[in-house]
Design brief:
The protein has 11 helices and 5 strands; from the N terminus they run βαβαβαβαβααααααα. By secondary structure, it is of the alpha/beta class. Strands 2-1-3-4-5 form a 5-stranded parallel sheet, sandwiched between helices. Helix 3 links the parallel strand 3 and strand 4. Helix 4 packs across helix 6 and helix 8 packs across helix 9. The radius of gyration is 18 Å and the shape is elongated.
Amino acid sequence: MTRVALIDDHESVRLGLAAACARAATKKVVFSGSTVTEYLSWRTSTSAAPADVVVLDLTLGDGTTVTENVRRLVVDGSSVIIHSVADRPAAVREALAAGAAGVVSKSSPIDDVIAAIRTVAQGEPLNNVEWASAVEGDREFADAQLSARERDVLRLYAAGLPLKVVAERLGVAYSTAKENITRVRVKYVEVGRPAPTKVDLLRRAMEDGLLAESAADAGDVARGR
C-alpha cells in the first residue's frame, strides 16, 4: 500500500486527487492539507511515518518557496511529485534541483497522476524530458542563481516590507540587506530580466516562485494600493 500525502492550497484539487487514490486499491491518502508545515506538524503530533509520496503544488499561498518545501519533504523521508500548471518554468526547474522526483501537469488526466505516484513509489524517476526541454528553452525565465540569503531578502522586500524591517527580521545589518538587494538586481540584469524598481522585483519574485500571489496582494495592501 502506497501512503500518499496531498499538499495544495486548493481544496478542490485535493478532493479530486483523494477520490482518484481511493479508487486505486494500492493508494492510501494519509494526509491532505494546504502547507508543508501543516503536514510536518501532523506527522509530529501523530507520530505517523513519512508518506511514501507527497503530491505538492508548485506554489503555495503561505509564502514558502518550492525549494524549501521540496527539501523539507525530502529530508523528512518522502519522495515528492510536483503537481503544477507549469506557468513558472524557473520554479519548476528549482523544484527538480531541490530533489523533486518529477513533475505532473494539472492538465494531465487523473490516471496519469496516479501512474506517476505508482512510478515514484517504486523508486523510479518520472520521464521529465519534455518538461526539462521546455524549461531550458525558456530564456525569459533564466535562473538568476540567487543565494539563500538573497532569496530571503528579496521575498520579504518584494512583499512590501521596508528594507530596514527586512534587515531586522532576518537579523542582519541594514547595509547587508541593501547590498543583497543590489546584488539581486545585478544578477537579474545579467540573465536578461532587469528589475530596476520594487514593482519589478515583485514580478521577478512571483515568476520564480519566491512569492505567492496572495502574499503579493498583501504587500499591495501594505503599500496602500
